[in-house]
Amino acid sequence: xxxxxxxxxSAITVEYGLHEGRFWLPRSQTxxxxxxxxxxxxxxxxxxxxxxxxVNGSEPLPDFRIAWRHRQRxxxxxxxxxxxxx
Length: 86
What we know:
This protein is an alpha+beta fold and about 90 residues long. The protein is built from two helices and three strands, in the order βββαα. It is about 15% helix and about 45% strand. It has a three-stranded antiparallel beta sheet, with no helix packed on it.
């Protein structure tokens, strides 16, 4: 085994795109950085791209009233967080 082996990630990027005019899905992700093996320093860039033929979009959106009832139960009505921070 060659030592030291180190890697330093300097940037992580995720690019999203609107699919079928409804779904924000990742198009690509990139990781950039530098690796060190013994005395060698090597820059690296890993890219991953995604494509979608279709999305299971026939499912309806979840009922948001449940979340609103939960907020009311715990006193988190609209504007409560804004008032608490002022």
